[in-house]
Predict the 3D structure of the following.
Amino acid sequence: MYPTVADVLATPPVRAGEPRVRAGAENLDRPVRWVHVSEVARVAGTLAGGELLLSTGIVAAEPGADLAGYVTALHEAGVSGLVVELGDRLPALPDPMVRTARALGLPLVELRRTVRFVAITEVVHARIIDAGHERLRFAQRVNDLFTTLTVEGARVEEVLDQASALGGHPVVLEDLAHRAIAFSGAVGAGELLRDWESRSRLALTTGETAVTGPERWLCTPVGPRRGRWGRLVVPLTVADTDLVGAVLERAAATLAITRVLRGEGRDIALDAHGGLLRDLLAGQVSDEQAMGARLRALGLGGGRAYAVLVLAVGSPAAPSAAADQATLEAAAATARGQGRAALTGVTAPGRVAVVFPCSGEDDEPAAVHSFRAALSLPPGAVVAAAAPAGRITGLPAALEEASHVADVVAAAPGRVGERDVYRGRDLGARGLLWSLRADPRLHQFAELQLEPLLRHRGPRRGTEQSTELLDLLRAYLDHNGNVAVLARALHLSRPAVYARLDRLSEVLGHDLADAETRLSLHLAVLAYDQAPRRP
């Protein structure tokens, strides 16, 4: 928000002096915090940095003056630039001054006509004061925004999005192991997170907001002083470090507070895993380079194939955040215990996805079996696996397949058979009907086939035999039409079962002994059971 050296040179009072840039043209974007007039050779000790120094050339015109040392001292003091007015005393800038300024990249400007320095300072200082007021308003806006995010318990992604938008630069949240937990910004993931861990380790961690490392990253720690758990990073050179640093500090405070509110012991890396897995499922990550960079930044190495699992615990209709978190932590602990670099995260209520690399597609079944055998889950939990993904770009489709399998099995507990790990080939017709469950033609088919049962009312007052007959049909089909087995399951005699089946055939208007009839009714019952209904 401060004017730059280029902005000052464009003001009417400076333009009247016919300015000519003699050195440091590449650094004219440096901010000017103040304009200072000085004719003292040792002025560097009185400067705070960011000043634009104006001079009539008295120092440069002194015989025997150490002009190289003078310019170096100004550069080390952090001045934004040096403007020298030429005249009778100093008709041209001395070569030592120009050479030193060029070597240091310090903007050095000569004014070829006499100007009133007071006119320059008035114009520039007015802009600086206005910028100061604007910074105060900006600081208030930053404070109000992050206070709101803190009160609302905003997600990590929301906090980073706001920090990036306010600071105008990409922002990355990493943990103490230099894994990129989350990021936001206009720069693509492939470029932003390239070789993240190795680059990040060169940017030494400090206890406060600072510029560090060979790439001049701006970093600020996240967490209480005695419990740092990460840091926010702007992974490029920042011109206004004070402004962007203030945004990072407020964002870091918001992240620290919301983590305490959500539970201090939660692993922030697992939240990041869940975010990436949800992005993959939603099809928001399709570029292989960007996807690979995000996976490597999270610590997941490459492999010839990837095992993709989805764990179903409970029902999405009655979600339990505690159960999801317990399952997530159990899966992550199992992966760590087996030495697997796995991606684990909650993708939906009651659904936890696990992705880990394998040495090849042929080794995936054994790796999945080993993981399942070591994983402890509550009774009724379902473990579904997709066909192994041979490429990173195959992960979205594999996640969708495993989620589909988990949804089908969880929707029909005990009806798909008992297996440690379910795959798509285990679903049979249920898998196909689940995929078509939103198709109105399937609903119409089920209603037409079962309509005689669904609208049937028994002769007894106050009873609805439609439910009883539908349950009988479902049991008959589940037992493959075997009356003897059905009779034992219903604890009835065979004659009684035959009588009920005759009544069922009469209501349906079809012979249950016909194979095609049984097929149609079975498909209709499966579709009817999968259709969502109000309680």
Summary: Confidence is low (pLDDT under 50) at residues 460-464. Residues 316 and 411 are 10 Å apart (CA to CA). The radius of gyration is 36 Å. Residues 117-152 form the longest helix (36 residues).
